[in-house]
Amino acid sequence: MTLYVNLAELLGTRIEQGFYRPGDRLPSVRALSVEHGVSLSTVQQAYRLLEDNGLAMPKPKSGYFVPVGRELPALPEVGRPAQRPVEISQWDQVLELIRAVPRKDVIQMGRGMPDVLSPTLKPLLRSLARVSRRQDLPGLYYDNILGCMELREQIARLSLDSGCQLMAEDIVITTGCHEALSASIHAICEPGDIVAVDSPSFHGAMQTLKGLGMKALEIPTDPVTGISLEALELALEQWPIKVIQLTPNCNNPLGYIMPEARKRALLTLAQRFDVAIIEDDVYGELAYSYPRPRTIKSFDEDGRVLLCSSFSKTLAPGLRIGWVAPGRYLERVLHMKYISTGSTATQPQIAIAEFLKNGHFEPHLRRMRTQYQRNRDVIIDWVSRYFPVGTRASRPQGSFMLWVELPEGFDTLKLNRVLVEQGVQVAVGSIFSASGKYRNCLRMNYAAKPTAQIEEAVRTVGAAAIKMLAEAAD
Question: Which candidate, 396, 362, 145, places its Cα nearest to that of 257?
Fold first, then answer.
């Protein structure tokens, strides 16, 4: 990526995170040239790119400014520290979300579904067709419990982009990232153990803890920098935590990328208290910035980080292909996989390996990153326009999920039931908490290309929220 694009992305991130507010004067061309060691023309190109994206506005003889009309919602507030570990609840609400049958009359904005209509997926469909037609029927046989060697080799190659030095032998193919997380948790913890989680956190991982009889200790999480290391340290001192589970890159649901220095500090904490880290990197490849962010695993020297990911968010969830690099826990993870699902389906593994080997993955990712970043800007604008005054929203740095915080005391469970009758569904915030916090929050998917129908769906959510608040005030 060229220097001016890198510089434009850096400035754009600062604007979106509120470092530069509407009406603020941006650094001068000369100042940026000196600060970043680039030419004046490089800075000018960066500013032209920001101007094209509506993030900067030139004023004659005055420099560049953040457009006044660009008023973004405030960021979500950081939650309060948990008093103690808790048993996980909210299964009924999760079930309500995941059992929803796709219907043409309902705009589904609650599920973690990528855009599967991109033309860049056509080579994958052709690979799937070729595998099914092969005379030797490779897709119908069991494969190694570790998974298809060709796919593991390709994943090891991809891991270099995140700073990891993995071999095919370090990787276990799983049935989606969910099984990778489940096998990792099961390999380390026993019923009654305490797991520290970022909060809000992925509901699937917490329901795994619930199913295995474990307790979650929710750690406050900043919408820009991630899990509070200070709160985590206090928790580690106070409770016998067995493992830390988090999503540091393109977090679900907040969308932040944890700064590299904080990832290193987190690993140092884990080493000091001798606990494992389960790192969910399922959205890491969808970071809007380049190069993609490093994983915590990339700094791991003693094998305590179990890195989990999948192709469910980058390609398609129906493939059900994930993976885990379990470090020192490899044998235990293999055993957990064996007693749960055994070998993973062979046909999609072979097809994905071919898709990667033939160079189709990177062009597909580039297209998706660009699309999702544009969609993010559109949906944040719609939330600003249609939602109640005082609404807060995240600034995702990757992926396709927006976290929205409505006024204190608002009930998104009640809102969602009203919305389903109007042909829209969102993910209620309480399922992202072990104890049912974030009832005034919701998560919306913005993967699909914006249409008038989707805009109307967002408008419907906002109008229903405004009506409920007005009724509560009467």
Answer: 396
In this structure, which amino acid lies at residue 99?
A: R
What three-state secondary structure class fits 53? Answer: coil
**Structural domains of the chain, with CATH:** 3-65 (1.10.10.10), 89-117+363-473 (3.90.1150.10), 136-358 (3.40.640.10)
Task: Tell me if residue 80 falls in helix, strand or coil.
Answer: coil
In this prediction, residue 144 has a pLDDT band, given cuts at 50, 70 and 90, of: confident
- Burial degree of 152 (CB within 10 A; 0-12, 13-18, 19+): buried
pTM assigned to the model: 0.85
Q: How far apart are CA 370 and CA 378, in angstroms?
A: 13
Handedness of CA 305, 306, 307, 308 (dihedral sign): negative
Q: Which pLDDT does position 238 carry in this prediction?
A: 96
Q: Yes or no: say if 317 and 113 are a contact pair by the CB < 8 Å rule.
A: yes
The CA distances from residue 259 to 22, 231, 302, 381, 412, in Å, are 25, 17, 22, 26, 31
Phi-psi bin for 138: left (phi > 0), alpha (psi -120 to 50), beta? alpha
CA neighbor of 204 nearest in space, from 175, 162, 168: 175
Residues 6+ apart with CB under 8 A from 410: 439, 440, 465, 468, 469
Mean pLDDT of 225-232: 95
At a CB cut-off of 8 Å and minimum separation 6, what does 265 contact? 229
Burial of residue 99 (CB within 10 Å: 0-12, 13-18, 19+) is exposed
In this model, does residue 72 exceed pLDDT 80?
no
Instruction: Give the Cα separation of 229 and 267 in Å (integer).
Output: 10
φ, ψ of residue 234 to 5 degrees: the values are -60, -40
Pairing of the two strands 226-227 and 241-246: unpaired
CB-CB contact of 145 with 349 (8 Å): no
Q: Are 7 and 38 in contact (CB under 8 A)?
A: yes
Task: Give the Cα-Cα-Cα angle 184, 188, 190 (nearest 5 degrees).
Answer: 115
